[in-house]
Amino acid sequence: MSERMIKYIPSQQDTGQYIGAIKELFGRTSFYITVINFFLLIVTAYYTTIRDFIPISFLTFIATTVLMVCVAMVIEYVVILPSSVVFQNIQAYKHTNPLKDDVKLILERLDKIDEKISK
User: pTM above 0.70?
Assistant: First the structure.
């Protein structure tokens, strides 16, 4: 992004863990609701619309849908997930993170050990 656009983006705030915890739990539980909803939606779409336009059996339609979901999962795993991990790691390191403090302490101790060894 250009520097002019970045200055209009508000800075991120350290809000603690509770907002993130609620969002994480809601996101994890809505996965199960989404699976049920998706199945009901494809069954409804088949019986109300698709079978009139595309003459395939319900089993073929389900198999095609499962195949499309599998392809989407492979794309997600190969392309999207690595980028998401990098982004999350950058965000975790940027904000309050006990692991960051531990690594800083370890590096300081290593520097002291290097000084003693070099003498």
Answer: no
